[in-house]
Design goal:
This protein is an alpha+beta fold. The chain has 3 helices and 2 strands, in the order ββααα.
């Protein structure tokens, strides 16, 4: 029996609270994960978090009871990218402007 593949994408940058921006099963889930990896976006493989997030619809903000769980993952992502919270909201500076 094949296990169903599921994926949920969150966006945080411009939002005050992370928002579900994509979700899908099987082929759609594979495309979400492939695109995330192609763009260098961290992919968490946490079945318990997936079960909680799968209750949400696209465009839903995560509920307060998931703030801590998602914050732990976001802090790990910031660390992996060498960023600090708020860096994602700063305008990007091109190399010729960085002097």
């Amino acid at each position: 029996m094949n296990q169903r593949l599921q994926a949920i994408a969150l966006e945080y940058g411009p939002n005050t609270t992370p928002v579900v921006v994509a979700k899908g099963d099987n082929a759609v889930a594979a495309m979400i994960v492939e695109e995330a990896r192609r763009q260098g976006i961290y992919v968490s493989e946490d079945p318990q978090l997936l079960a909680l997030l799968s209750r949400l619809n696209v465009d839903d903000e995560i509920p307060p009871e998931l703030y801590t769980t998602v914050a732990v993952i976001l802090s790990w992502v910031y660390w992996l990218k060498g960023m600090r919270p708020g860096d994602e909201k700063k305008p990007e500076v091109s190399p010729d402007q960085a002097s």
